[in-house]
Amino acid sequence: MTHTTQAALRAAEPSPPPPWLAAAELPRAISEMTLLAASMPGLLHASARGDGHPVLVLPGLLASDRSTTALRAVLVKLGYDARAWGLGRNRGPRAIGKHGELLQSRVEALAQEAGRKVSLVGWSLGGVFARLLARRIPQHVRQVITLGSPFIDNGEATNAGKIFEMASGTRRDDRANRAIFAELAAPSSVPSSAIYSRSDGVCAWEVCREDAAACRESIEVYGSHCGLGVNPSVIFAVADRLAQAEGQWAPFEPGRWSSWAFPAPSRS
Fold first, then answer.
1. Is 268 inside any structural domain?
2. Domain hosting residue 226, numbered range
3. Segments in the chain below pLDDT 70
4. Which of 66, 131, 144, 157 is most solvent-facing, going by the fewest CB within 10 Å?
């Protein structure tokens, strides 16, 4: 590959969100959490009900199960067996095992306990790992839902690249991480929904979207990266996706009274 071609490819790659948008993440996330508390009765009334199948919720980079408490609580109220991942803070390989074996064992054990496939909901880096497991053990995974997960990133389209390196003790471009993204590029038989926001202040939204294909979709929402797990629109969409009968997946279509919460599909 020539230097000119490489430069052209780099120029075409998405850039990280601007600093001002990253700086606004915390106040925006707090606003989303406040909105969730205020809208909880209506959200529970409007959301699709669950069938009791197990749902494992994976936190984002450096986050723990505390960050997914609200999301899991809502899912339990809607009728799901929502579980914490139980691996401490998400420090990449330091949490899931060098080859992802700790997380894989967690999913396999949950599927065996329930006697049913497990749906995986992953926030940010947690969603990257969820997609990885869908390729490794599809026989145990019912569907994957990612929240602002940069699963087609090369490490240059997020504002958290250096933080990932410090937390995981690895380099973004080392052999192991390159192998993971090569594995993620392979097709998967597991239905997947990628929820993303164009105003994400951590990850470039372009690397958080799914290619439209059979049993694959992207769902755009209004919100911050750090608030995705407490965003009422996100939770509504997650509940809608999880409520589908196994083997009967269909694209997300917000109803007449909820369409205002989701940008027009033509923008995606």
1. no
2. 17-242
3. 1-12, 153-155, 265-268
4. 66
CA-nearest of 150, 143, 157, 265 to 212 is 265
pTM here? 0.92
Distance CA 116, CA 110 (A): 9
pLDDT score recorded for residue 138: 97
- 60 domain-assigned: yes
Q: Give a yes or no: residue 179 inside a domain.
A: yes
182: Cα separation from own chain's centroid: 18
> Is residue 12 one of the residues assigned to a domain?
no
3-state SS of 225-246?
CCCHHHCHHHHHHHHHHHCCCC
| Counted domains in the chain | 1
| Distance from C-alpha of 171 to C-alpha of 252, rounded to nearest angstrom | 36
- 78: tokens are 């809607």
State the CATH number of the domain containing residue 47: 3.40.50.1820
Would you tell me the crossing angle of helices 125-136 and 101-114 to the nearest 10 degrees? 70
Number of H helices and E strands in the chain, helices first, is 10, 6
Collapsing DSSP to helix, strand or coil, 205 comes out as: helix
Among left, alpha and beta (phi > 0; psi -120 to 50; other), residue 98 is alpha
Q: What is the pLDDT of residue 101?
A: 96
